[in-house]
Amino acid sequence: QVQVVESGGGLVQPGGSLRLSCAASGSIFSIYAMGWYRQAPGKQRELVATITNSGSTNYADSVKGRFTISRDNAKNTVYLQMNSLKPEDTAVYYCNGDTLSRNYWGQGTQVTVSS
Length: 115
What we know:
Blueprint: E1 2-7, E2 10-12, E3 18-26, E4 33-39, E5 46-52, E6 57-59, E7 67-72, E8 77-82, E9 91-98, E10 103-105, E11 109-113
């Protein structure tokens, strides 16, 4: 079993920045990759960024150049640094832990970009 818990959401003005954190616990040795997904009202959940345990990253085209995913292995934590935020980035952001055989999800954290 793996548990992931997100933190760091909030309200920010367009052009601002936020950093999300995701702490993993449990059978963390089984995690192949961790990632961030988001779901806006009335839309499907979509991939934002992922990072494998070897450090390879992948980003959605809509966030490339603005968002950065990183990990601190000593703290079992993954971060999502979000810069130049836009109103269309407003969504609930979910952390995901992928063990290849199963996906584990956090409860989500709300990010609202509005003036």
